[in-house]
Amino acid sequence: MKKKTIDKFSHLFKVLSDPNRLSMIRHLCGCREANVGELSSCCSIDVSVVSRHLSKLKEAGVLGARKEGKEVFYDLKAADLAKMLRELADEIEKADCCR
């Protein structure tokens, strides 16, 4: 596996390793999209903390965002996340230890 690929997966798993971020992802799996206030309420996390977590998830390509007036709505980029995880599974299957 190339260093660039390793770095990408390392970053993804670092972002996904936080329980609060996983709670937000779980919530977004059950709805089409949510704003910061809704995610703060459902996950019992302060709004400012939610915003920081959302920023990291968006940067990692896990979430998408759209702005409506002053409000930002976030959605799970499920297909993109599944593609990234599938890419890792493919790399593992190609490894010598799996032959």
Can you describe what's shown?
The chain has 99 residues and is α+β, with helices and mostly antiparallel strands. The protein has a single domain (3-94), classed as Arc Repressor Mutant, subunit A (Orthogonal Bundle), CATH 1.10.10.10. The chain contains five helices and three strands. It has helices at residues 3-16, 19-29, 36-43, 47-59, 78-94, and strands at 34-35, 63-68, 71-76. Strands 1-3-2 form a three-stranded antiparallel beta sheet.
Query: Main sheet, how many strands, which sense, barrel?
Result: 3 strands, antiparallel
Low confidence ranges: none
The oligomerization state is single chain
**Total of helices:** 5
Distance between the termini: 16 Å
CATH-defined topology: Arc Repressor Mutant, subunit A
Q: Percent range for helical residues? A: 55-70%
Reading the helices and strands in chain order gives HHEHHEEH
> So, the CATH homologous superfamily?
Winged helix-like DNA-binding domain superfamily/Winged helix DNA-binding domain
Average pLDDT for all residues: 91
How much of the polypeptide forms β-strand, as a percent range? 5-15%
How big is the Rg? 15 Å
Number of strands: 3
- CATH structural class: Mainly Alpha
Number of domains: 1
Query: Architecture in CATH?
Result: Orthogonal Bundle
| 3D shape | elongated
Structural class determined from secondary elements: alpha+beta
